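G., the chain you wanted modeled:
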Amino acid sequence: MKDLKWVEIDLSAVAHNARWVVSRLEGAKLMAVVKADAYGHGAVEVAKVALKAGASSLGVRDLPEAAELRRAGIKAPVHLLFPILPEQAPDAVRLGVSVTVDDAAQARALNAAAKSKVGVHVDVDSGLGRWGVSPRDLPELMRALAALKKVRVEGLSTHIDYVPGKNAVEAEEKLGAFKRLAEPYKKSRPELLVHAANSSVFMDFPHHRFDLACVGNLLYGINPSGRPAPLKSAWKFCARILSLRDVRKGASVGYASEYLAPRRMRVATLPVGYADGLTMEPAERLIGFGGGFRYWGMRKGVKLPFIGRAGIAHVLVDATDVPKVEIGDVVTLPVRRTAARHLDRVYR
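Predicted structure as C-alpha coordinates:
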Protein backbone atom coordinates (compact mmCIF):
# COMPACT_ATOMS: atom_id res chain seq x y z
CA MET A 1 0.00 0.00 0.00
CA LYS A 2 1.36 3.41 -0.97
CA ASP A 3 1.65 6.04 1.76
CA LEU A 4 0.05 9.44 1.21
CA LYS A 5 2.93 11.33 2.88
CA TRP A 6 6.36 10.49 4.25
CA VAL A 7 9.84 11.86 4.88
CA GLU A 8 13.00 10.75 3.07
CA ILE A 9 16.26 11.10 4.99
CA ASP A 10 19.61 10.95 3.21
CA LEU A 11 22.08 9.75 5.85
CA SER A 12 24.98 10.03 3.40
CA ALA A 13 24.25 13.78 3.30
CA VAL A 14 24.43 13.94 7.10
CA ALA A 15 27.77 12.13 7.00
CA HIS A 16 29.09 14.50 4.32
CA ASN A 17 28.02 17.55 6.31
CA ALA A 18 29.52 16.23 9.55
CA ARG A 19 32.85 15.49 7.85
CA TRP A 20 32.91 19.00 6.42
CA VAL A 21 32.32 20.54 9.85
CA VAL A 22 35.06 18.38 11.39
CA SER A 23 37.47 19.39 8.63
CA ARG A 24 37.02 23.05 9.60
CA LEU A 25 37.54 22.64 13.36
CA GLU A 26 41.36 22.81 13.38
CA GLY A 27 41.81 20.61 16.43
CA ALA A 28 38.54 21.44 18.17
CA LYS A 29 35.87 18.79 18.72
CA LEU A 30 32.38 18.37 17.33
CA MET A 31 29.31 17.80 19.47
CA ALA A 32 26.60 16.62 17.08
CA VAL A 33 23.33 18.11 18.27
CA VAL A 34 20.56 15.53 17.93
CA LYS A 35 17.94 17.20 20.13
CA ALA A 36 14.28 17.15 19.08
CA ASP A 37 14.81 13.75 17.45
CA ALA A 38 17.71 15.19 15.45
CA TYR A 39 15.52 18.04 14.20
CA GLY A 40 13.05 15.45 12.94
CA HIS A 41 15.63 13.31 11.12
CA GLY A 42 15.81 10.51 13.71
CA ALA A 43 18.14 10.85 16.69
CA VAL A 44 19.48 7.30 16.81
CA GLU A 45 20.14 7.05 13.08
CA VAL A 46 21.78 10.48 12.86
CA ALA A 47 23.83 9.93 16.02
CA LYS A 48 25.42 6.77 14.64
CA VAL A 49 26.28 8.46 11.35
CA ALA A 50 27.66 11.61 13.00
CA LEU A 51 29.88 9.65 15.38
CA LYS A 52 31.28 7.60 12.51
CA ALA A 53 31.94 10.84 10.60
CA GLY A 54 34.03 12.30 13.41
CA ALA A 55 31.77 13.72 16.12
CA SER A 56 33.18 13.17 19.61
CA SER A 57 29.92 13.58 21.54
CA LEU A 58 26.17 14.04 21.16
CA GLY A 59 23.99 16.89 22.39
CA VAL A 60 20.40 16.32 23.53
CA ARG A 61 18.01 18.58 25.35
CA ASP A 62 16.83 16.36 28.21
CA LEU A 63 16.89 12.97 29.94
CA PRO A 64 14.25 11.20 27.79
CA GLU A 65 16.29 12.01 24.68
CA ALA A 66 19.46 10.73 26.35
CA ALA A 67 17.66 7.55 27.42
CA GLU A 68 16.61 6.87 23.82
CA LEU A 69 20.24 6.92 22.69
CA ARG A 70 21.35 4.66 25.53
CA ARG A 71 18.55 2.16 24.79
CA ALA A 72 19.83 2.03 21.21
CA GLY A 73 23.22 0.93 22.51
CA ILE A 74 25.02 4.23 21.92
CA LYS A 75 27.84 4.49 24.46
CA ALA A 76 29.43 7.73 23.22
CA PRO A 77 29.49 10.79 25.50
CA VAL A 78 26.05 12.42 25.68
CA HIS A 79 25.56 15.96 26.95
CA LEU A 80 22.32 17.44 28.26
CA LEU A 81 22.05 20.90 26.74
CA PHE A 82 19.22 21.88 29.11
CA PRO A 83 19.76 22.10 32.89
CA ILE A 84 18.13 19.46 35.06
CA LEU A 85 15.97 19.72 38.15
CA PRO A 86 17.79 18.51 41.28
CA GLU A 87 15.38 15.58 41.61
CA GLN A 88 16.45 14.36 38.16
CA ALA A 89 20.05 13.87 39.26
CA PRO A 90 19.78 10.09 39.91
CA ASP A 91 18.52 9.51 36.38
CA ALA A 92 21.31 11.63 34.91
CA VAL A 93 23.88 9.63 36.86
CA ARG A 94 22.29 6.33 35.83
CA LEU A 95 22.43 7.28 32.15
CA GLY A 96 26.06 8.36 32.39
CA VAL A 97 25.57 11.76 30.77
CA SER A 98 27.27 15.10 31.30
CA VAL A 99 24.96 17.81 32.54
CA THR A 100 24.55 21.53 31.97
CA VAL A 101 24.44 23.30 35.33
CA ASP A 102 23.93 26.93 36.26
CA ASP A 103 23.53 26.73 40.04
CA ALA A 104 25.00 24.85 42.96
CA ALA A 105 21.77 23.00 43.85
CA GLN A 106 21.90 20.97 40.63
CA ALA A 107 25.54 20.10 41.25
CA ARG A 108 24.95 19.13 44.89
CA ALA A 109 22.17 16.77 43.81
CA LEU A 110 24.48 15.16 41.24
CA ASN A 111 27.19 14.84 43.87
CA ALA A 112 24.79 13.10 46.24
CA ALA A 113 23.54 10.69 43.57
CA ALA A 114 26.90 9.80 42.04
CA LYS A 115 29.08 6.84 43.02
CA SER A 116 31.95 8.13 40.90
CA LYS A 117 32.76 11.35 39.09
CA VAL A 118 29.95 12.95 37.08
CA GLY A 119 30.79 15.54 34.43
CA VAL A 120 29.14 18.96 34.20
CA HIS A 121 29.36 21.92 31.87
CA VAL A 122 28.80 25.30 33.51
CA ASP A 123 26.66 27.54 31.32
CA VAL A 124 27.07 31.33 31.38
CA ASP A 125 24.21 33.65 30.47
CA SER A 126 25.49 36.10 27.84
CA GLY A 127 22.15 37.84 27.40
CA LEU A 128 19.90 35.20 25.89
CA GLY A 129 18.14 35.02 29.23
CA ARG A 130 16.91 31.44 29.11
CA TRP A 131 19.27 29.97 31.76
CA GLY A 132 22.92 30.23 32.76
CA VAL A 133 24.89 31.75 35.61
CA SER A 134 25.61 35.47 35.34
CA PRO A 135 29.26 36.32 34.59
CA ARG A 136 29.66 38.07 37.93
CA ASP A 137 28.41 34.99 39.83
CA LEU A 138 30.57 32.50 37.91
CA PRO A 139 33.56 32.57 40.32
CA GLU A 140 31.35 31.76 43.29
CA LEU A 141 29.69 28.86 41.45
CA MET A 142 33.04 27.48 40.27
CA ARG A 143 34.33 27.53 43.87
CA ALA A 144 31.22 25.69 45.04
CA LEU A 145 31.66 23.03 42.37
CA ALA A 146 35.33 22.56 43.21
CA ALA A 147 34.29 21.59 46.75
CA LEU A 148 32.14 18.69 45.50
CA LYS A 149 34.19 15.49 45.40
CA LYS A 150 32.07 13.64 42.83
CA VAL A 151 31.51 16.52 40.39
CA ARG A 152 34.00 17.22 37.62
CA VAL A 153 33.69 20.45 35.62
CA GLU A 154 34.31 19.34 32.04
CA GLY A 155 33.25 22.46 30.20
CA LEU A 156 32.39 26.14 30.29
CA SER A 157 29.76 27.21 27.79
CA THR A 158 27.54 30.02 26.60
CA HIS A 159 24.91 30.47 23.91
CA ILE A 160 24.69 34.01 22.62
CA ASP A 161 21.59 35.64 21.15
CA TYR A 162 23.10 35.93 17.68
CA VAL A 163 20.98 35.96 14.53
CA PRO A 164 22.93 36.19 11.24
CA GLY A 165 22.45 39.53 9.57
CA LYS A 166 21.00 41.11 12.71
CA ASN A 167 23.51 41.72 15.51
CA ALA A 168 27.00 40.71 14.41
CA VAL A 169 28.81 43.55 16.24
CA GLU A 170 27.06 42.73 19.50
CA ALA A 171 27.80 39.03 18.97
CA GLU A 172 31.52 39.71 18.49
CA GLU A 173 31.56 41.71 21.72
CA LYS A 174 29.80 38.94 23.66
CA LEU A 175 32.03 36.20 22.31
CA GLY A 176 35.09 38.26 23.17
CA ALA A 177 33.78 38.86 26.69
CA PHE A 178 33.15 35.14 27.14
CA LYS A 179 36.66 34.35 25.93
CA ARG A 180 38.13 36.73 28.52
CA LEU A 181 35.89 35.26 31.21
CA ALA A 182 36.99 31.71 30.40
CA GLU A 183 40.72 32.42 30.07
CA PRO A 184 41.77 32.03 33.73
CA TYR A 185 39.86 28.75 34.06
CA LYS A 186 41.32 27.43 30.81
CA LYS A 187 44.80 28.46 31.89
CA SER A 188 44.57 26.55 35.16
CA ARG A 189 42.89 23.55 33.51
CA PRO A 190 43.91 23.19 29.84
CA GLU A 191 41.62 20.16 29.40
CA LEU A 192 38.53 22.30 30.12
CA LEU A 193 36.22 22.44 27.07
CA VAL A 194 35.28 26.06 26.36
CA HIS A 195 32.45 26.31 23.86
CA ALA A 196 30.08 28.86 22.37
CA ALA A 197 29.83 27.88 18.71
CA ASN A 198 26.46 26.73 17.42
CA SER A 199 25.97 26.54 13.64
CA SER A 200 25.63 30.33 13.25
CA VAL A 201 28.70 31.15 15.31
CA PHE A 202 30.63 28.33 13.62
CA MET A 203 29.99 29.90 10.22
CA ASP A 204 30.29 33.61 10.99
CA PHE A 205 32.88 33.70 13.79
CA PRO A 206 35.50 31.04 12.96
CA HIS A 207 37.94 32.65 15.41
CA HIS A 208 35.53 31.85 18.26
CA ARG A 209 35.10 28.11 17.77
CA PHE A 210 37.14 27.50 20.93
CA ASP A 211 37.45 23.81 21.95
CA LEU A 212 34.08 22.41 20.93
CA ALA A 213 31.43 23.26 18.34
CA CYS A 214 27.86 22.23 19.20
CA VAL A 215 26.42 21.95 15.70
CA GLY A 216 22.91 20.99 14.67
CA ASN A 217 21.59 22.86 11.62
CA LEU A 218 24.70 22.38 9.50
CA LEU A 219 24.55 18.62 9.95
CA TYR A 220 21.14 18.58 8.29
CA GLY A 221 22.11 20.79 5.37
CA ILE A 222 20.65 23.98 6.86
CA ASN A 223 23.01 26.95 6.58
CA PRO A 224 21.82 29.83 8.81
CA SER A 225 24.62 32.07 7.56
CA GLY A 226 25.07 34.06 4.38
CA ARG A 227 28.51 32.49 3.99
CA PRO A 228 28.65 29.61 1.49
CA ALA A 229 29.13 26.04 2.62
CA PRO A 230 29.22 22.82 0.55
CA LEU A 231 26.35 21.21 2.41
CA LYS A 232 23.97 18.53 1.17
CA SER A 233 20.29 18.47 2.03
CA ALA A 234 19.36 15.48 4.14
CA TRP A 235 15.59 16.03 4.11
CA LYS A 236 12.76 15.58 1.65
CA PHE A 237 9.08 15.74 2.61
CA CYS A 238 6.84 13.97 0.09
CA ALA A 239 3.08 13.81 -0.40
CA ARG A 240 0.86 12.33 -3.09
CA ILE A 241 -1.83 14.28 -4.93
CA LEU A 242 -5.16 13.16 -3.49
CA SER A 243 -7.53 15.06 -5.77
CA LEU A 244 -7.46 17.11 -8.99
CA ARG A 245 -10.08 19.51 -10.30
CA ASP A 246 -10.42 22.28 -12.87
CA VAL A 247 -11.26 25.75 -11.57
CA ARG A 248 -12.59 28.55 -13.77
CA LYS A 249 -11.09 32.02 -13.81
CA GLY A 250 -12.56 34.19 -11.03
CA ALA A 251 -13.76 31.27 -8.91
CA SER A 252 -13.05 31.46 -5.18
CA VAL A 253 -10.97 28.65 -3.72
CA GLY A 254 -10.09 27.76 -0.12
CA TYR A 255 -11.15 28.99 3.30
CA ALA A 256 -12.95 32.35 3.55
CA SER A 257 -12.89 32.65 -0.25
CA GLU A 258 -9.52 34.37 0.19
CA TYR A 259 -8.19 33.28 -3.17
CA LEU A 260 -9.77 34.11 -6.52
CA ALA A 261 -8.40 32.15 -9.45
CA PRO A 262 -6.54 34.57 -11.78
CA ARG A 263 -6.94 32.15 -14.70
CA ARG A 264 -8.39 28.77 -15.53
CA MET A 265 -6.48 26.45 -13.20
CA ARG A 266 -5.81 22.83 -12.40
CA VAL A 267 -5.96 22.61 -8.59
CA ALA A 268 -4.46 19.69 -6.67
CA THR A 269 -5.20 18.68 -3.09
CA LEU A 270 -2.35 17.36 -0.97
CA PRO A 271 -3.00 15.55 2.36
CA VAL A 272 -0.58 17.79 4.29
CA GLY A 273 -1.48 20.66 6.60
CA TYR A 274 -0.24 22.72 9.47
CA ALA A 275 -0.45 19.65 11.75
CA ASP A 276 2.47 18.37 9.65
CA GLY A 277 4.46 21.59 9.97
CA LEU A 278 3.08 23.34 6.90
CA THR A 279 2.53 27.10 7.06
CA MET A 280 -0.87 28.48 8.10
CA GLU A 281 -0.36 31.66 6.09
CA PRO A 282 -2.57 32.27 3.03
CA ALA A 283 -0.94 32.78 -0.33
CA GLU A 284 -2.74 36.13 -0.64
CA ARG A 285 -3.07 38.53 2.28
CA LEU A 286 -6.26 40.08 0.92
CA ILE A 287 -9.07 38.79 -1.25
CA GLY A 288 -8.29 39.56 -4.87
CA PHE A 289 -6.86 38.42 -8.15
CA GLY A 290 -3.15 37.77 -8.35
CA GLY A 291 -0.47 35.30 -9.18
CA GLY A 292 1.87 36.20 -6.30
CA PHE A 293 2.72 33.44 -3.84
CA ARG A 294 5.15 32.76 -1.00
CA TYR A 295 5.11 28.98 -0.61
CA TRP A 296 5.05 26.12 -3.04
CA GLY A 297 5.62 22.43 -3.61
CA MET A 298 7.71 20.95 -6.40
CA ARG A 299 6.88 18.34 -9.04
CA LYS A 300 9.27 17.48 -11.89
CA GLY A 301 11.12 20.77 -11.41
CA VAL A 302 7.90 22.84 -11.58
CA LYS A 303 6.66 24.98 -8.70
CA LEU A 304 3.13 24.34 -7.44
CA PRO A 305 2.12 27.53 -5.57
CA PHE A 306 -0.06 27.21 -2.48
CA ILE A 307 -3.62 28.43 -2.91
CA GLY A 308 -5.46 29.99 0.02
CA ARG A 309 -4.90 28.86 3.58
CA ALA A 310 -3.41 25.54 4.53
CA GLY A 311 -5.82 23.51 6.64
CA ILE A 312 -4.91 21.29 9.55
CA ALA A 313 -4.52 18.29 7.25
CA HIS A 314 -4.62 19.55 3.64
CA VAL A 315 -3.39 22.23 1.29
CA LEU A 316 -4.42 23.26 -2.22
CA VAL A 317 -1.78 23.92 -4.87
CA ASP A 318 -1.79 25.23 -8.42
CA ALA A 319 -0.78 22.31 -10.65
CA THR A 320 -1.72 24.00 -13.94
CA ASP A 321 1.83 24.09 -15.28
CA VAL A 322 2.80 20.54 -14.33
CA PRO A 323 2.88 18.33 -17.45
CA LYS A 324 0.60 15.28 -17.37
CA VAL A 325 -0.21 15.68 -13.68
CA GLU A 326 -2.19 12.80 -12.18
CA ILE A 327 -3.72 11.71 -8.89
CA GLY A 328 -1.04 9.84 -6.94
CA ASP A 329 1.87 11.92 -8.26
CA VAL A 330 4.48 12.81 -5.65
CA VAL A 331 5.04 16.46 -4.65
CA THR A 332 7.83 17.63 -2.35
CA LEU A 333 6.95 20.32 0.20
CA PRO A 334 8.60 22.67 2.70
CA VAL A 335 7.57 21.88 6.26
CA ARG A 336 8.92 22.56 9.72
CA ARG A 337 11.00 19.43 10.17
CA THR A 338 10.43 18.88 13.87
CA ALA A 339 6.67 19.05 13.36
CA ALA A 340 6.75 16.14 10.91
CA ARG A 341 8.23 13.66 13.37
CA HIS A 342 4.99 11.65 13.47
CA LEU A 343 5.34 10.62 9.81
CA ASP A 344 7.08 7.55 8.45
CA ARG A 345 10.73 8.08 7.57
CA VAL A 346 12.55 6.35 4.75
CA TYR A 347 16.35 6.24 5.14
CA ARG A 348 18.79 6.00 2.28
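Residues 281-292 have pLDDT under 50 and may be disordered.

Shout if anything looks off.
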